[in-house]
Amino acid sequence: MPTKVHEFTWPDRVVVGTIGLPGERTFYLQVRAGSQIVSIAMEKQQSAQLAEKIDEILDQLGTLEGNPFSIPASTPIELVDNDQLEPVEEQFRTGAMSLGWDPSTVQVVIEAYPITELDTDDDESLADVEAEVEVPEMLLVRMPVGTARAFAKRTREVVGAGRPTCPLCGQPIDPGGHTCATPEG
């Protein structure tokens, strides 16, 4: 069965947002073009890493001699999106993701795939099993550089708006209290 591709070449909106209270939030990558909206669930760490890697790509491209792609060093104010998520209908929970750059369209490219179950026999290697796994659907998003900067900025803010981190152990502090997991020394 062929993979269903939810493709957004020039999206009207691409954001990470959450539903729920800190400590119980579900993160979503939501993309809209016209009336088509796709929302995929992500882990907090996936969201944070995606923002970090987008900024790394854009920063590296911006240092190329003459900045041939006109990469903005900061987020263009007109692209800041602080609105809530639109109604969420989860398409899938994200497993693997890839991030790339398309110089022909000057866009950052995100590919997201659902979590898949891998069943292995003792005689099969993991690589052989992964090659046989059929992915039922995927999300493919292409973002212009300004939109990508704004996406990364918002994502960092959304990730940072959760529970505060314990300065001793680095674990999140729950509203009901915290048992510090500092190593005994």
Give your account of this protein's structure.
- The chain is of the alpha/beta class and 185 residues long.
- 23% of the residues lie in helices and 30% in strands.
- The chain has 3 helices and 7 strands, in the order ββββαββαβα.
- Strands 1-7-6-5-4-3-2 form a 7-stranded mixed beta sheet.
- α1 packs antiparallel against α3.
Sequence of strands across the biggest β-sheet: 1-7-6-5-4-3-2
Q: Please write the string of helix (H) and strand (E) elements.
A: EEEEHEEHEH
- The overall strand count is 7
Q: What is the residue-mean pLDDT, rounded to a whole number?
A: 87
Shape, per Cα inertia axes: globular
Tell me the strand percentage band: 25-35%
Q: Runs with pLDDT <50, length 5+?
A: none
Distance between the termini: 56 Å
Tell me the Rg in angstroms: 19 Å
Sheet bearing the most strands, described?
A: 7 strands, mixed
Number of helices: 3
Structural class: alpha/beta
Helical proportion, percent range? 10-25%
SSE order and pairing:
Layout: E1 4-8, E2 13-19, E3 26-33, E4 36-42, H1 44-62, E5 90-102, E6 107-114, H2 126-132, E7 137-144, H3 145-160
Parallel strand pairs: 1-7, 4-5
Antiparallel strand pairs: 2-3, 3-4, 5-6, 6-7
